Amino acid sequence: MKKSFLASALSLTIFLAFGAVLVFAQSPQGGGTVNDSGGGSFNEQGGGTVQTPTGLENPFRGGPNSLFALIKTIINKILMPIGGVIAVLAFIYSGFLYVIARGKPADIEKAHRSLLYTAIGTAILLGAWVFATVICMTIGQLGGPACPA
Q1: How far apart (Å, rounded) are the C-alpha atoms in residues 82 and 66?
Q2: Would you call 70 helix, strand, or coil by DSSP?
Q3: How many domains does the chain divide into?
Q4: 38 lies in some domain
Q5: What 3-state class would DSSP assign to 109?
Q6: CA 70, 63, 135: angle at the middle one, nearest 5?
Q7: Is the pTM of this model over 0.70?
Q8: Measured between alpha carbons, how far is 50 from 41 in angstroms, rounded to an integer?
């Protein structure tokens, strides 16, 4: 117990020490000053100031680099194609279950359930996409950020 506490305390101390070194590694060299007001420049000989940005952009505002565009891209370019492939494979599997049932009522019932759950899952996948698109278009018509393509 004491060894693990000492190891944790030592690790935390080393982490904080190196963290402070990394933070101070970015300070201006040669006697320059930092100006947070946004004006000035820095030169290597020691005079001048370093300009640092002080504002934050709204990630929900429309545009190609917004959070909304990222989420829509993930849904349209990653989740929908993967979901579509999985849906097609599930339908093929359901058909395969019908073929191997060979008239047995229990196996046919299993194939029916598989087909039903596949159809429900596909409907949920496509319905969620339609629902998201309708909400996006409605927000765009109300004056919000436009839907990214």
Answers
A1: 24
A2: helix
A3: 1
A4: no
A5: helix
A6: 65
A7: no
A8: 5
Residue pair 144/61 in contact (Cβ under 8 Å)? The answer is no
Give Cβ neighbours of residue 40 (< 8 Å, ≥ 6 apart).
48, 49, 50, 51
Is residue 103, in this structure, part of any structural domain at all?
A: yes
Q: Are 85 and 91 in contact (CB under 8 A)?
A: no
Burial (CB count within 10 angstroms: exposed 0-12, middle 13-18, buried 19+), residue 72: middle
Query: What single DSSP character describes residue 28?
Result: P
Residue reference for tokens 């018509």: 141
* Structural domain for 95, as ranges: 91-149
> Cβ atoms within 10 A of the Cβ of 102, count?
8
Tokens found for residue 76: 């349209």
The CA distance from 92 to 149, in Å, is 31
Report the helix count and the strand count for the chain, using DSSP H and E. Answer: 4, 2
Whether 124 is in a domain gets the answer yes
The 10s digit of each residue's pLDDT in 95-131 is 999 999 998 999 999 999 999 999 999 999 899 888 8
Q: For residue 37, tell me if it sits in a domain.
A: no
